[in-house]
Amino acid sequence: MSKDTKGGASGRAPATAGTKRMPAAATDAVGRKLKESYGELLREPIPDKFMQLLQQLDEGARKAQGSEVAEDEEAAAGTLDMTTDEAAGSSSSSNTSKASSSSRNED
Amino acid sequence: MSPSPELKGELIKAMPNLRAFAISLCGNPDRADDLVQQTLVKAWTKIHTFEEGTNLRGWLFTILRNTYFTEFRKTRREVSDGDGEYSSRLSIQPSQQSHVDLQDLSAALSQIPDEQREAILLIAAEGFSYEEAAEISGCAVGTIKSRVNRARHRLAELLGVTSGDDFSSDQFGSSVLISGSAVTRG
């Protein structure tokens, strides 16, 4: 029996409500399997299009030739603001204060 | 503003990880490619906000997962071609001795909640620390821990794994065997 559990955590009883208690060996096995299958993915070659994209970005060629990429970038720049906001803890400063300004029965 | 050559080198080095994470998160290689490409473009345009010397892989993963959770998760449901496609692609690799296991694993992964899948991928597959994973996911360390725990248990349940030996047994998959007493080894 070769146990190659790495560092801590495995022996403790997990404090999960609603899930059945599972022997640590079983959950460790899942972790190992996951790592193994992930390793297969890591070894796959990187698609050319990724390298090409980087090259395009690097050359600043996006303005001149890759209109596709330019679009992507605009879209990306727009959404990134959103996502970083959310990552920062969904700062709900989105003051939609248009509701308060409806005073039309003023005449 | 282009990243420095060193930074670009690191970016390239992180690409297999970004891709593996994206595929595992999406469960669909084509959508994963889109996700990685969007991530690269965003990273490039925001590279000036990255503090050189800090954890680039973590920074990139943050962008990728934010993109996934804000844009990809919804459409994934709409398209709903996620699971099967990736599974069948995995199963084409005949040289892979344990391909049945892997297929089952990816199918099981697609059945657990996104947040749990994310957490177990970051911790168990990518090897981020709990602290790093918490920062990437924008939640508390304790939250990551419990997500990972729940993910492990759910996966073990879904895969019918009850002991550390189950995966190495070649009858893996027939859960009857596991509940029976036939697994005892002498």
Tags for this entry?
heterodimer; A: 107 residues; mainly alpha; 4 helices; disordered C terminus; B: 186 residues; 10 helices; 0% strand; globular
Task: Explain this structure.
The complex is a heterodimer of chains A (107) and B (186). Chain A is mainly α. Helices cover 53% and strands 0% of the residues of chain A. Mean pLDDT of chain A is 61; it is low at 1-19 and 78-107. Chain A contains 4 helices and no strands. Chain B is mostly helical. Chain B has 10 helices and no strands. Chain B has helices at 5-13, 15-26, 29-45, 56-79, 82-91, 99-111, 114-125, 130-137, 141-159, 175-179. Classes of the chains: A mainly alpha (107), B mainly alpha (186). At the A-B interface, helix 1, helix 2 and helix 4 of A face helix 1, helix 2, helix 3, helix 4 and helix 6 of B.
What's a concise summary of this model?
The complex is a heterodimer of chains A (107) and B (186). Chain A is mostly helical and 107 residues long.
Summing up helix and strand content along with how strands pair, one would put the structural category of chain B as mainly alpha
State the major sheet of chain A.
Answer: none
Number of strands of chain B: 0
Main sheet makeup of chain B:
none
Helix content of chain A: 40-55%
Rounded average pLDDT of chain A? 61
- Which stretches of chain B are poorly predicted, pLDDT < 50 over at least 5 residues? 76-100, 169-186
State the low-pLDDT regions of chain A, or none: 1-19, 78-107
Greatest interface (CB-CB under 8 A), with counts per chain: A-B, 51 and 57 residues
Count of helix runs of chain A: 4
What's the shape of chain A? Answer: rod-shaped
H/E series of chain B? HHHHHHHHHH
Mean pLDDT of chain B: 79
- Helices and strands of chain A, in N-to-C order? HHHH
